[in-house]
Amino acid sequence: MDKEFLEHGLNMNRRRFLSRLSLGLGSVALGSLLIPDLFGGGSGVEEMGLAPGIPHFAPKAKRVIYLFQNGAPSQLESFDYKPKLREMMGQELPASVRMGQRLTGMTSGQSSFPLVGSFYDFKQYGEARAWVSDLFPYTAKVVDDICIVRSMFTEAINHDPALTFFQTGAQQGNRPSMGAWVSYGLGSENKNLPAFCVLLSRGKGNGQGVYSKLWTNGFLDSIHQGVQFSSGESPVLYLNNPAGMDSTGRRKMLDKLSELNHLSYSEFGDPEITAKIQQYEMAYRMQTAVPDITDLSKEPDDIIKLYGPNCLVPGTFASNCLLARKLSENGVRFVQLYHQGWDQHGNLPREMAGQALDVDQASAALITDLKQRGLLDETLVIWGGEFGRTNYSQGKLSADNYGRDHHPRCFSIWMAGGGVKPGIVYGETDDFGYNITKDPVHVHDFQATVMHLLGLDHEKLIYKHLGRRYRLTDVAGNVVKDLIA
Amino acid sequence: MKIKRLAENLLLAANVFILFILLFHPALRLPAWVQVTGRMHPLLLHFPIVLLLLALVLDVMMLRNAALRGYQPLISNLWLAGALTAAITAISGLFLSVEDVYSGSMLSWHKWTGLGIVWLSSLLYMLRYYKQPIFMAGSVLMLAGLAMAGHFGANLTHGTDFLLAPVTPPPQKIVVPVEQALVYEHLVKPILEQKCVSCHNAAKAKGQLLMETPAQMLKGGKSGLLFVAGNPAASLMLQRIHLPMEEKKHMPPKNKTQLEPDEITILQHWVRSGADFKRKVTELPADDSLYLLALQKLAAPEVEETYAFAAADESTLKKLNNNYRVIYPVARHSPALVVNFYNKTQYSAKALEELLPLKTQVVELHLQKMPVQDADLAIIKQFSNLRRLNLDFTAITGPTLKELSALPHLRSLAVSGTRVTAAHLQPLAASKSLKEIYCWNTGITGQGWQQLAAIKHIRFEKGYVDDGSDSLRLNPPIIENEQTVFRNSMGLVLRHPIRGTEIRYTLDGSDVDSLLSPVFKDSLLIDSSFTIRAKAYKPGWYGSAAVRMRFMKTSYLPDSAVLLQPANEKYVAEGPKSLTDQQTGNFEIGSGKWMGFRYNNMELMMLFKQPVKMKAVTLNTLRLPRSYIFPPQQVEIWGGPQPDQLQLLKKVTPAQPGQKDGNSIIDITCQFAEREINCLKIVAVPVGKLPQWHDGKGQKAWVFVDEILLN
């Protein structure tokens, strides 16, 4: 035996060792065949995540238009019909329903919680026989194209954290907004426009502000930040040529500047320099693309009637909807609208009617308009606020006046197009409209579903920052398969 | 040696025992503990395989290398151990087969190959030192036996398709239109095939039940008939299905894939409705739950599209991709491409032609708003895998559209906003793949729509057309002038965002008449205070609500102004000058336009270097009762040649709001006999005690002033 060991040792010369080693390497190579992604990607930024710019799997939706109803519209006067609340008008909210769940500081001091039914009647529409309140006659007409989710719930109870949660997946802020994630994940379709645009409007109802942190790029590259389009003469700030500079002059200047930048790049090799060159070029292309898109004067008369006369009044929700369609049609991945004024702590019947009048026709028009252009299939439209409102009255309850406080435990939103099942009503709440009884959808589930529709796996679209991997849905969220066509 | 002899004896005994079991197999009744031995068969079988293989390999090595002869006894022992464990395994297998869990041809094959191994290995052990060629031939035979018995055994436990499942393509779900579907064939049978037949087939025949054909189903198995038509409760199949999971007789067995609730419902309803093998789905009543389930099950499954073509060359892609022609894959690892065109000045037929190297890969082409010509469709036609084509608002007129029916995969076509007519679209009916055509805002007439409606397999999207039935109220005109105070004269400009709207107006504050009031044109020059009311009109719309605004004229500007008593520190505006700057405020009290007083009167002194002729002084004040802002209780106008020679020109007591009055901006005018003055003093006294109905009753009110007009 000893002799054999000795022989073995003597035979193991360098050549043999190396040739055996090659066998070992071969087996490693063989093993690696079983891990398809082993040698793909893995470069710094996109570590573990998939290469940004291309969907992970075939998407149903290519673009999103999010009609955010800022301030939280009441589900009880819109899409969640609760006849029981009318029957029990003025009676106390049973403790067995509330189950000691927290209230905001605005009503926790109330000695009584009188139930209040909708001031407005509901009717059933469409093949799904969905209940829609009389405040939304136009939405009722397109009910077969939309999917109403009545079982949304969130974790936050006040506007800012709830809004931030909806937009960024976390309540505290500093994380990238949904549109920024989409821009990061899918890139921009049209290189002449930003991938993420933001449009603001304001109703007459009690309002809450919106802040640019809602469309922030967070820790993602600043190219993914939402670009706010304003309603004035210069929709995109600092885009127009300054007085005395014409387009030819601008072109000449950029060409010279680019020459200098290239020189400097060949000297230093800093990639930031080429990035800068590209940014100048994009801004130049935007100078042509943006005026063309923001000019609504060429829209045909049918379109004006479809969206309602306010669609030509800059800064209104209707006008923003029309603009959103034009942006989306031109390849903007994510158009985020905010309509403010939905915070009806008091005067709900009057204020909500005004708010609904602002948004109803134009929201429905957007769906019809996308549909008639063959774009609804590839565009996801979302309508909804950051939470719901209480089934009891905040403040004094009278026959024609009441208010509702914040209610995170159930609320309604709707989605349309982009691979969402049309004409369905998803989820149920109890007879009091207080708790969800069937198919709850958490904000993270909603976000996961939106990402899924866009062909993005919400668990794989991640970004490493400060030593931690982040994603829109944080550490939660399940795709709601039942909502997907 | 003693052990070896013992083992040899055991081997002989085992062989005899095996023969015995084989002879009396049908009559055997096994005690429980023997059943346990039987169930150890899947464990024991590994020993003979390994031991016999090892022995064989060593034998072969010994043949080639004489030096290994010294291992002869060891190899011999291995043969013995192998044969003995083979025999024990066979015995346990026979015990297991008595339990009647398995039956059918697969079992027979397994049994006899297994027994073959036992006998052959026993024989080979004994004949080890006989003729070598015979020994080797026997060994090879046994090796084959080992492979076969192992394979059949594995098939018994895991099913016949287990081994090759990863490389066999999954069976394509055949979609049968509901009209042609049969209840048994297309609803019941697929369930049986998935969940039952893997055991109840001719090869395995567990419980002597076969479920592959209707005849077999009717025959039933060892425990009797499978079902009683019309009576699910009395049917063995459903009884077994409904047994609790832990019951031994629950079907499908615990470790197999269970039936879905839907599937149980289908089986149950099928038996209840008579277990008919020929019935059509359409013969079921429309509200029957089986019918509703059938609709769901038979709906075409949504499968992610797979593409059979190869991906395009990376460098071609890179070359063709630019800022106005964006090419990207449908998804990661997908060879299919989407192409979007942007900016109509960058489009040309050539730009389209350049894409032809990708003609196999492009599945979506988005050309909306590009000046695509009719002739360009000849290029598009070559993209043989096209699924979606968007030609909205292009320059096409329609005659060449028919060529697109040659595209075998085209599903969706959009031609909204073009001059296409129904006649141009009709030839597309020849396409088998087209599902939808978007043709809003085209040249299609009422009659055209009727013709298109006859093409059933394509959905034509008509979109929204204003047929006049939807009468909406116009929004009011917009007054472009932002400032409501002017000196001498002003040009009034009214505008309406919607083209072709007519604006009618009045200047005296009276109501606007849709026929009699004058129509606004371009601009109006006005030289005295006025209240404009204007409404917009357009055919097909309801007239708008009125827009109303008051414009006020001021004639003089003081050379200096000073406040004798200070304004409240929070509402100082920009000093007394701002009261004559022709800038008015709105309801935002913090806008910097309003000057507020609460604990003292407003006392304003104005001086003119040259004497002016004055006959009226107007204070523009704010009324926000809920914010404690009321009109002044009293206004006094003093005038004269010098500050110390002032006379009271006018004293006014403005009307105070009642409980119901809301927010308003009110101008309070004090008129007096015309007088030449160099110095003017204006005193406004805040309400000292808020009225009883007010939340702050008894407290002092505010006075807010933003402008003073001198005429």
Task: Give descriptors for this structure.
heterodimer; A: 485 residues; alpha/beta; Alkaline Phosphatase, subunit A; nine-stranded mixed beta sheet; two-stranded antiparallel sheet; 13 helices; 34% helix; globular; B: 711 residues; 5 domains; seven-stranded antiparallel beta sheet; 17 helices; 24 strands; 29% helix; elongated
In brief, what are we looking at here?
The complex is a heterodimer of chains A (485) and B (711). Chain A is α/β, with parallel strands linked by helices.
What kind of sheet is the major sheet of chain A?
9 strands, mixed
Q: Reading side by side through the largest sheet of chain B, how are the strands ordered? A: 1-2-3-4-5-6-7
Record field, number of beta strands of chain A: 17
Summed up, the domain count of chain A is 2
**Biggest sheet features of chain B:** 7 strands, mixed
What's the architecture of the largest domain in chain A, going by CATH? Answer: 3-Layer(aba) Sandwich
Distance separating the two termini of chain B: 139 Å
Q: Please tell me the overall pLDDT of chain B.
A: 88
Oligomer: heterodimer
Overall shape of chain B:
elongated
- Output the radius of gyration of chain A: 27 Å
Describe the structure.
The complex is a heterodimer of chains A (485) and B (711). Chain A has helices at 2-11, 14-32, 83-87, 95-98, 137-141, 159-168, 178-186, 247-268, 271-294, 301-307, 317-329, 348-372, 443-453; strands at residues 63-70, 122-125, 130-133, 146-153, 196-202, 227-229, 334-340, 379-384, 388-398, 401-407, 411-416, 424-426, 428-429, 436-438, 441-442, 463-465, 468-470. By secondary structure, chain A is of the alpha/beta class. Chain A folds into two domains: 2-32; 52-244 and 289-483, Alkaline Phosphatase, subunit A (3-Layer(aba) Sandwich). In chain A, strands 1, 4, 5, 6, 7, 8, 11, 12 and 15 form a nine-stranded mixed sheet that branches. A two-stranded antiparallel ribbon of chain A has the order 2-3. In chain A, helix 8 packs antiparallel against helix 9. The longest helix of chain A is centred in the last third of the chain and has 25 residues, at 348-372. Chain A is globular. The relative contact order of chain A is 0.20. Mean pLDDT of chain A is 88; it is low at 39-51. With 711 residues, chain B is of the alpha/beta class. Chain B folds into five domains: 2-158; 183-298, no CATH class; 314-461, Alpha-Beta Horseshoe (Leucine-rich repeat, LRR (right-handed beta-alpha superhelix)); 472-552, Immunoglobulins (Immunoglobulin-like, Sandwich), CATH 2.60.40; 555-710, Sandwich (Jelly Rolls). Helices cover 29% and strands 19% of the residues of chain B. In chain B, the strands form six sheets. Chain B has a seven-stranded mixed sheet, with no helix packed on it. In chain B, strand 1 (325-329) and strand 2 form a beta hairpin. Chain B is elongated. The mean pLDDT of chain B is 88. The chains are: A alpha/beta (485), B alpha/beta (711). The A-B interface holds A 50-51, 53-59, 189-192, 285, 288-289, 297, 300-302, 304-306, 308-310, 312-313, 329-331, 365, 368-369, 371-375, 377, 455, 485 and B 302, 304-305, 323-324, 326, 328-332, 334, 340, 342-343, 368, 388, 390, 392, 412-414, 416-417, 436, 438, 440-441, 461-466, 470, 472-475, 478, 497-499, 540-541.
